[in-house]
Amino acid sequence: MEVNKKQLADIFGASIRTIQNWQEQGMPVLRGGGKGNEVLYDSAAVI
């Protein structure tokens, strides 16, 4: 399932900053990013 940063934070019970930290450490991103573009994650790939 495609989820955004806020939805992923809710799934994990974590803060958005924690999700950003995990992403910087190599958590897979489905698509997006960059200025003005929402980052989307594949929840199955992240878990």
From TrEMBL:
Gene3D superfamilies, sorted: Winged helix-like DNA-binding domain superfamily/Winged helix DNA-binding domain
Top-level taxon in the UniProt lineage: Bacteria
InterPro entries found in the cross-reference section: DNA-bd_dom_put_sf, Phage_lambda_Nu1_terminase-ssu, WH-like_DNA-bd_sf
Pfam families (UniProt xref): Phage_Nu1 (PF07471)
Record-given protein name: DNA-packaging protein
